[in-house]
Amino acid sequence: SSVINRLLNRKNLARVGAAPGKTTHINYFLIDEKFYLVDLPGYGYAKVTKREKARWSGLIGDYLASDRDIALVFQLIDMRHPPTKDDLMMIHYLVECEMPFVIILTKMDKLSRREQEKRLEAVQTEIPYADQITILPVSSETGEGISEIRAIIEELVGQEEEDLQAAGKSPDQEVTLGWGAGCAQPADMKE
Question: Which end of the chain is more exposed for a tag (fewer CB within 10 A), N or C?
Fold first, then answer.
């Protein structure tokens, strides 16, 4: 959610908490009447009950299993740590579904430049297909990496607008932060 706030230059649009797990529902943000930015519940380091994680899994699974026009998924992974089992499961899922996605490594500002370099090097072996995936280190605190995310979205939205104008349709494309895909429902997340 802090990435969304920084991306949109709004301090409190998406609710942010001191601890992970503040996003507990699917939140839709209509941006400039052109596209939806969708914030899904996180799953990695949230300290919630198994029941709540199962509820989130159902929300996310239902969202992904629907026939939405999801243009791109931004999967957020905490740069300070190796990807979790859930992170890796989602990467495999997105690859299997041939869903376009970008990995955003969050909290880069919490690491020194040297630690960032080491983590970026480690990510190349920790993340399957890393050499084929766009991976962006980002800081919602300093704004580093945000312009790259904006450029990716602007390119997608520009292409979508051209396609819609040609077809005489209105925008309904979604860009998803967190989880996302568009084929079979993923397996439930494990704690």
Answer: C
Residues 26-85: tens digit of each pLDDT: 788 888 887 888 887 766 555 667 777 677 667 776 776 667 778 888 999 999 999 988
The single residue listed with the structure tokens 């990435």 is 3
Task: Give the number of other CB atoms < 10 A from CB of residue 160.
Answer: 19
pTM of the model: 0.78
Query: Distance from CA of residue 25 to its chain's centroid?
Result: 15
Model confidence pLDDT, tens digit, residues 78-113:
999 999 888 898 888 888 878 889 999 999 999 999
